[in-house]
Amino acid sequence: MKTFKALSALLNYPSAELQEAVGDIRRVLTEERQVPTDTLAPLLSRLREIDLFELQADYVDLFDRTPRLSLYLFEHIHGDSRERGRAMVDLHRLYRRHGLELDTRELPDYLPLFLEFLSTLPGDEAQTLLAETVHILTALETRLTERGSEYAAVLTALVKLADTQPDPRAVAGLRNLPDAAPETLDQEWEEAPVSFGPGCEPGKHMERPLAAKRK
């Protein structure tokens, strides 16, 4: 489903290519009618109209310097524990079982990357996997809404696509991540270039500079 890829692009680090692709993203969302495009309109307009450097700076402050809003799914469950490492290995194996090799320095649990993966799967299988993350998505939706961020609409759309009621206990059980940025950056998945497969446009998450990541 192309909608997953479109939403992945919207959550990626802003780039000139992403700005140019806003029209294509809007068209995909309108044609597939899987999520309400009117709620995403403010974000689409912002990505197209705001200066790129301002978009990038805002993105870094929002997602990279605010652990509570991290787009790394397992960080909300495991933090930096060994369990997170094992979960990422399992996720990487899942990608490979479906014939996909990562060509990015992002960690496997990076939400835009996960959504690109879902876009390659049959609808039922993609929905089932997305539903497994609905408690994290719901928490992120709430936190972004509290900040008045246009990105909240993307999480709202993902919760809708998950088509599963989040367990309040699971949401409440997520790690209480701080607002202050961590001092170190995960390194273990950043050594070898890997390929996510053909046609990664329009998100181009693999071009995201390391300087923009969590510090």
Features:
disordered C terminus, 12 helices, TorD-like, 0% strand, mainly alpha, 215 residues
Sum this structure up briefly.
The protein has 215 residues and is an all-alpha fold. 55% of the residues lie in helices and 0% in strands. The longest helix is centred in the middle third of the chain and has 16 residues, at 82-97.
Give a verbal description of the structure.
The N and C termini lie far apart (34 Å). This protein is 55% helix and 0% strand. With 215 residues, the protein is mainly alpha-helical. The protein is built from 12 helices and no strands. The chain has one domain (2-175): TorD-like.
Portion of residues in beta strands equals under 5%
- Shape summary: globular
H/E element order: HHHHHHHHHHHH
Report the helical percentage. 40-55%
> How many individual β-strands?
0
* CATH architectural arrangement: Orthogonal Bundle
Q: What is the class in the CATH system?
A: Mainly Alpha
